[in-house]
Each structure stands twice: as C-alpha cells, then as structure tokens.
Amino acid sequence: MTSEQFETFWLSTYPETIPIAYNFKHCYKDRWFRIHSLPESQRYPNTNQEWHILLSRQNRIITDIIGDSTQLFIVTGEYDFDGTFDSPDVLNTELLSDFKFKSLKPIDLYKIDSKEYDKGTIYRPFFAEVKWEQNKYDKILCSIANDEMRAFFVSMENKCLIAPYDGGLDLVLENSAIKDYYKTKYKDWLSLHIEGL
To answer: What is the dihedral of CA 175, 179, 180, 186, to 10 degrees?
Structure first.
C-alpha cells in the first residue's frame, strides 16, 4: 500500500482524528473502550507473572477482535519541535528496524491545536504493513507497556484501531454495537472509572 492510499483510507474512515493514539478516545467516544492490562488497574507489571497477565490479556482481546493471521498496519511517529528532524530514531530501534515503514504527510500540530502546541511543532507519522499473529509482537507490547515507545495497530478489514499504552489497551471498533459486545465480554478488565479511563 502506498502512503497516498493509506492517507485516503485514514481520511475516509477516521476523519475526526489524526494518527496519534491519545486522540482516539476523545474523537470516537461511542466506538471506544479501554481495557486495563493488570488486575485492579495496576499500571506497570513488576513480576514475570504480571508480565504474563499483561501479554495474555492484550493478545487475547486483539486476536478475538481481528482473528489470527490478519493483515494490519502498525503506525508510529516522532515529534519535530524545532525543524531539525532528519532521520526518525524510532524506526531505527531494534524492535521496528525490520519493518518496511513508509512516511505519511507531516502534521502541523499547532494548526490543529494552538493551545496545546507551540508554533513549528510537527508530527511525522509512519506506517508499515504487518500480519497479526498471537504473541508475535510481545516485545513491542512490552516496550509500549514500559512507556519506552508509542505505536498502534490499524485493521482495515475489521475497521478498528488498537492502541496499547502504559496501562492497557484502547480500542476503537467499527460501531457502537460491536464495541458494546466486546466491552461486555471483557467487563472484568474494564476500569471502574466513570469515564472508563
């Protein structure tokens, strides 16, 4: 898939947001829900057993929603605060260096939210085509859970966004009915927070 094709897909499917995961819960509240990776909303794992629980939960729900051996896109990016961006460090990490990333159009964040961002703040997103297989991306999930990197998955086939973070997994599903089904199915993994955070 070319960068132009991905951008066309994104604009037609997720026109309310840019490809930065923390925006999803605000822009698609009716289709979004969150699971926590550990019991009692514990944020970070401290033992091997807790890492096992985290990976088991995340792999289980992702595979349940999209299936195994499913085409996905992994999306990541970097902020450029002063215009000196040269080569993206995130793509050179060991975890991502084997993927064939393509660049998307830079996003001027100041134009989107001048209260949140300074002039000249640019976000440069990248995407790569991958195939989901259970436990294949455990190292990436662990790195995100440790707040060492940021990335999310997009399933065109299932029309969903899968965004791990340090504490859980944000999901934007195709419609509110599908969201409600999975939210009920995984109710024991939900936050007790009134807004589901």
So the answer is: 170
Q: Is the dihedral of CA 14, 17, 20, 21 positive or negative?
A: negative
pTM score, two decimals?
0.91
In Å, what is the CA distance from 146 to each residue of 54, 90, 93, 167? 11, 15, 15, 9
Write out pLDDT tens, residues 129-160: 999 999 999 999 999 999 999 999 999 999 99
Task: Give the Cα separation of 135 and 58 in Å (integer).
Answer: 9
Taking the C-alpha atoms of residue 152 and residue 71, their distance in angstroms, rounded to an integer, is 14
Q: What is the pLDDT of residue 87?
A: 60
In percent, how much of the chain has pLDDT > 70? 92
> C-alpha 70: how far from its chain's center?
16
Per-residue burial over 125-146, b = 16 or more CB atoms within 10 Å of its CB, e = otherwise: bbbbebebeeeebeebbbbbbe
Rounded mean pLDDT of the chain? 91
Confidence of residue 95 (pLDDT cuts 50, 70, 90): confident
| Token representation of residue 25 | 């819960």
User: Where do the structural domains in the chain lie, given as residue ranges?
Assistant: 3-189
* Residues with Cβ within 8 Å of residue 34, at least 6 apart in sequence: 25, 168, 169, 170, 171, 190, 191, 196, 197
